[in-house]
Design brief:
47% helix, 6-stranded antiparallel sheet, alpha/beta, Rossmann fold, 533 residues, 3 domains
């Protein structure tokens, strides 16, 4: 969605004036200016000053002076519940003889005055120091438990699935411009599909939750908005600009914090938060919908980060770091859609030249995880350079039954070790023998590890074209050629439903993006408990 805004230099003039320590009555020694997508915050200790940027993103509109004053006053009022003593007053500022002052007759803009909180108390900073654990999570959950049960959070209003659906549509519409730069089209499409199918899959649960699990919530509950000291917890900067984004499911509110814990590498704490929130709120279905809400919240953060990548009329410099943040949030949203950020091994299998290595590499890239390729492991174990074609004697040793058995054992051990450490992993191998598959599935199940099987297949015409191209490629790991294709093809035993595990059979085409789209859709439907189409 295009941003509508003032294009006059007034906001730049305001920014320069607010950057001057001499503007403030208490004469701070220095000030720090922070830009967000919608506001400008000046830290002039012991106070902080906030103005709204004259922007309209559709879901948020501060375009007029009256709107900015209104929403600053709402911010002052609404944040008293979870951040008492932080928000002080809303004051006008004026231009007088070319200078910004606190007195005048015609306000230029409005400023929210707040008390500065100590830098080392913010939750994301404490995370870096390793000073956040289960006791701190208990304190936060206790505060939220009391807040969700307070009169401030109650209303005769009832939520609607339509508003949640619309909020998700806005996320995808506003991130459409990121496709091709910050994420690939198949990923964006798969995330949209997950949002639609998830709303349908759990429609009954969502409707039940609307009866007694929706509240006036914080709405923007991520790590940077939580401040802890030994005596106090303050959760500030709640949603004030859109009631539809604040009147939400409590699980949706908590999912923001759990998602941000995952983003910062603290998935164990995220799981603890979900488990304890379910217990404290006596909410049995909260864990069921948590991954769905976390994927939605990751998209919210990706959208916000993407809005700050390019310079605007209200921020002179681009911020490429925000592009990296947006991509990581897109990745995280995809992890929830495909695995729920749980211990999962994705196996991409199939005949020679089925395209499995190309797709597996893309899948691993977008999940931010390791790609275990059987051809690479085979050559590494044999001491053969990856891109060297073996001679006949080497080839017999490389592809003997005993060597193949060792390769698959090594792959499995690597995969289980990575998953045990909390990371998904993508395995890429033919898995032509049903006994190999049964053994791997059985031992994974015993270890509590989920396996998602994708079988790629293609026509002989496509396989031949790929093998011919492979024969002339300079950097090619696989050694299989068209001359081996008939024997390898004959030895391949396709998986069947009678083997006792779910798998998806996906047709691989010359269009890698289309093949990846089909694989992502199949994995997403497995995660939702549906039969892949």
């Amino acid at each position: 969605m295009a941003m509508k805004s003032k294009t006059t230099p007034v906001f730049q003039d305001l920014t320069r004036a607010l950057s001057d320590p001499g503007f403030y009555p208490h004469q701070p020694s220095s000030v720090r200016v922070i830009h967000t997508h919608a506001s400008l915050v000046v830290l002039a200790r012991p106070f902080a000053y906030k103005i709204k940027k004259p922007v309209d993103f559709g879901f948020l509109n501060y375009a007029t002076l009256a709107q900015r004053k209104h929403f600053l006053e709402r911010e002052l009022m609404l944040n008293q519940a979870l951040a008492p003593g932080v928000y002080m007053e809303v004051k006008p500022v004026f231009w007088n003889e070319g200078k910004l002052t606190w007195q005048g007759t015609d306000p230029e803009d409005w400023i929210l005055v707040m008390r500065c909180l100590s830098e080392d108390g913010f939750m994301h900073r404490r995370m870096l120091r390793g000073s956040i654990g289960k006791p701190e999570m208990e304190r936060i959950l206790a505060l939220l438990h009391d807040y969700y049960g307070s009169t401030e959070s109650q209303s005769s209003q009832r939520g609607t699935l339509q508003y949640l659906r619309q909020a998700m549509r806005i996320n995808f519409r506003m991130t459409e411009s990121c496709v091709g730069d910050l994420l690939d089209r198949p990923v964006h499409q798969a995330l949209k599909r997950y949002a639609r199918r998830g709303l349908l899959q759990w429609k009954g649960i969502f409707k039940d939750r609307m009866k007694d699990r929706w509240r006036w919530c914080h709405g923007d509950l991520h790590l940077e908005h939580v401040h802890l000291t030994p005596k106090k917890i303050r959760i500030y900067d709640c949603i004030e600009f859109n009631d539809g984004l604040r009147w939400i499911d409590m699980a949706n509110d908590l999912a923001f914090l759990a998602m941000d814990l995952d983003y910062h590498g603290h998935s164990e704490l995220a799981r603890y938060l979900t488990r304890r929130a379910s217990e404290m709120l006596e909410d049995d279905t909260l864990p069921v919908v948590m991954d769905f809400y976390k994927s939605y919240r990751a998209m919210v953060r990706a959208k916000v980060a993407s809005l700050q990548v390019q310079p605007t009329a209200h921020r002179a410099e681009a911020d490429p770091e925000q592009g990296l943040r947006a991509t990581r949030y897109f990745q995280l949203a995809l992890e929830y859609a495909l695995s729920g950020k749980k211990a999962v091994v994705f196996v991409v299998m199939g005949k020679v030249a089925s395209g499995k290595s190309t797709v597996a590499a893309l899948l691993a890239c977008w999940l931010g995880c390791e790609h275990l390729n059987s051809d690479c492991i085979r050559k590494e174990m044999a001491g053969v350079p990856l891109h060297e074609r073996p001679n006949p004697a080497q080839r017999r040793r490389l592809y003997s039954k005993s060597m193949t058995r060792r390769v698959y054992q090594a792959m499995q051990q690597k995969a289980w070790a990575m998953v045990k450490d909390g990371f998904p992993v993508v395995m890429d191998a033919t898995f032509s023998d049903s006994r190999q598959r049964a053994s791997f599935q059985r031992m994974s199940t015993e270890k509590g590890i989920s396996v998602r099987w994708i079988e790629l297949h293609c026509s002989d015409v496509t396989a031949r074209a790929r093998l011919r191209k492979r024969a002339t490629a300079e950097k090619q790991v696989s050694d299989a050629g068209w001359d081996q294709y008939p024997s390898l093809n004959a030895a391949y035993v396709a998986p069947e439903s009678s083997e006792g595990f779910a798998f998806a059979r996906v047709t691989s085409t010359s269009r890698t993006d289309l093949t990846l789209q089909r694989v992502l859709n199949a994995l997403m439907e497995m995660q939702l408990g549906l039969t892949p189409k």
